[in-house]
Amino acid sequence: MAKAELTLNGKKVSFTPGQTILEVCQQNGVEVPTLCHLAGTTPTGACRMCLVEVKGARTLVASCAMPAGDGQVIETESEKVLIARKLNVELLLASGHHNCLTCEANGDCKLQALAYQYGVESVRFEKSDRYYPTEDDNPFIVRDFSRCILCGRCVQACNEVQVNRAIGFGYRGTEAKIVTAGDQPYINSDCVFCGECVQACPVGALTEKKARGKGRSWETRKIRTTCPYCGVGCQMWLHVKDNQVVKVTGVEDAAPNYGRLCVKGRFGYDFVQSPERLTTPLIKVRGKFKQATWDEALDLVAAKIKAARKEKGANAVAGLTSARVTNEDNYLFQKLMRVGVGTNNVDHCARL
Length: 352
Ligand code: FES
What we know:
The protein is an alpha+beta fold. It has helices spanning about 20-25, 80-95, 110-115, 155-160, 195-200, 265, 295-310, 325-340; strands at about 5-10, 10-15, 50-55, 60, 75, 140-145, 165-170, 175-180, 205-210, 220-225, 235-240, 245-250, 280-285, 290, 320, 345-350.
């Protein structure tokens, strides 16, 4: 497609028509702060943190929602822009109860980082006196509307990324709130607890229930791994403190999931540390399980399969494999059954 050109902070840069000003800034290494912007979804222009100055425009414009135009002259760090961004941070801080000391998101909060970046030491506006009770009557997600900045990223994540359509904006004006249908708690709604909203929340309004109090973001280290639940191979970060998994998030910039996870992948990690988890094979001796080596276990299985085949034929044997192993392992298993054992009786726990 034909390229167009604009001037960004005094430098001529080219872009593809259809790109937003924010995209042009990002592709040219110019940092513009954002809060409501969620890549890949429809821009909402809700937070106004990404304001930039476009020569000739009557007002500052939200760069995430404004298409770049041929010949535009854009300033991203002018005095006007910096004053407006700082003002927006103050307004957002005044709109809720952002007590960082007790907030679960402390150290991992975009609003906190922006307040620091723009030197907001006090808030000149009257603080909202609206308190909402914290909603934590489900096993996975804590919703604290007193900390919500109504950026709408959770709504975009639910509606446009996961396409569950479980939440949206409700009420009006100072009463505005993110709601499920009928403003019910998540547990009584269409929410499937994929947790995409939690990953999208830039503040402490939505947090993982099991991670609360388990460690601040600077106390955990992130270890990249592949989800063990099925063969899709979703990429995830394990947030680990003292060798314990504290929470799981999706890797934003990697295929196949680009940050998305399902309820099992995001919240079903308890088994990793379960004391009931098997660490060695078990074989039954006189009706009781006893720990065995892999050689002992595999020899026993091979002997049983051979005996059954000899006595009743290969079709007396069946193999059931698991969604928790890789596609390659499942392929090898069916090959073992068909070619090694000689039966097509092979199935998979996730098929039914
Ligand atoms: Fe552009 Fe929020 S990031 S308005």
